[in-house]
Amino acid sequence: MVLRVWLRAFAVLVCLGGSTVSAGQVSEKPPPPKSVRLYVIDCGLINVNRAGTERYKVTPEEVGETRFSVPCFLVAHPKGTLMWELGILPDDTVEARARGEQGNPTATSASVTTVPRTLRSSLAEVGYRPEDITYFAFSHAHVDHNANANLFTGSTWLARPAERAFMWEEGNTR
C-alpha cells in the first residue's frame, strides 16, 4: 500500500516535469495583478506596560486598552508592489523565539511583543517574496514599524527626508 502511494507521487512529479515547490516557497516572481489588491498581514501584537504608556504622559487606566495590533500591508498594483509597515520584530527573532531562543531582543522594557509568524512566510502565502517588492515605506521610523526593513534591500525606500534623518540620528534607540 505504501509503495503504491509513493509510486503515484513519483508519477505525478514526473508528469509535472520534476519541479517541486515546498510549502511557503515561491518559485518565481508573480505576474502583476490586473487590478489593485490589498493584503492585510498580521505582523504581531504589542502589549504596552505602565512604563510604556507613562512615557507618553498617560496611564494605562486612561488608555484603557494597552494591547495594540501591528498590521503590515502589501499593495499589489499593475505597476509594482508596495509594503507599508514592516513589522515589530525581525523575522530572525520570530524564528529564534519559535525555537525557544531569545533572538535579537528589539522589544523595549516598556512592552511585550508577540508575532505569530514571519513576514516572509506571510508574503509567501499570497505568492510574494521580499525580492518581489518594488517599494516599501512605513508611517514613522520606530522599531514597531520597520523591524524587517533589511528584507527589502532590493526595494526602493520611500521616506520623507526628516524621517530618514531621524532614523540615523546619533544615539537613536527607537
Instruction: Write the CATH homologous superfamily.
Output: Ribonuclease Z/Hydroxyacylglutathione hydrolase-like
**CATH architecture group name:** 4-Layer Sandwich
CATH topology: Metallo-beta-lactamase, Chain A
The count of DSSP E runs of length 2 or more, i.e. the number of strands, is 6
Q: Which regions are unreliable across 5 or more consecutive residues at pLDDT < 50?
A: 1-24
Q: What is the CA-atom radius of gyration, in angstroms?
A: 20 Å
CATH class type: Alpha Beta
How many structural units, i.e. domains?
Answer: 1
Mean of pLDDT:
80
Biggest β-sheet strands, sense, barrel: 6 strands, mixed
Class by alpha and beta content: alpha/beta
Q: How are the strands of the biggest sheet laid out side by side?
A: 4-1-2-3-5-6
Q: Which band does the percent of strand residues land in?
A: 15-25%
Head-to-tail CA distance between termini: 59 Å
Summed up, the helix count is 7
What is the percent of helical residues? 25-40%
- General shape: globular
Order of helices and strands: HEHHEEHEHEHEH
What are the key terms here?
174 residues; alpha/beta; Metallo-beta-lactamase, Chain A; 6-stranded mixed sheet; 7 helices; 28% helix
In short:
This protein is of the alpha/beta class and 174 residues long. It has helices spanning 2-15, 50-54, 60-63, 91-98, 119-125, 143-146, 161-167, and strands spanning 37-48, 67-77, 80-84, 111-114, 135-137, 156-157. The chain contains seven helices and six strands; from the N terminus they run H-E-H-H-E-E-H-E-H-E-H-E-H.
Structure, described:
With 174 residues, the protein is an alpha/beta fold. It has one domain (35-167): Metallo-beta-lactamase, Chain A (4-Layer Sandwich), CATH 3.60.15. The protein is built from 7 helices and 6 strands, in the order αβααββαβαβαβα. It has helices at residues 2-15, 50-54, 60-63, 91-98, 119-125, 143-146, 161-167; strands at residues 37-48, 67-77, 80-84, 111-114, 135-137, 156-157. A 6-stranded mixed β-sheet has the order 4-1-2-3-5-6. Strand 2 and strand 3 form a beta hairpin. The longest helix is centred in the first third of the chain and has 14 residues, at 2-15.
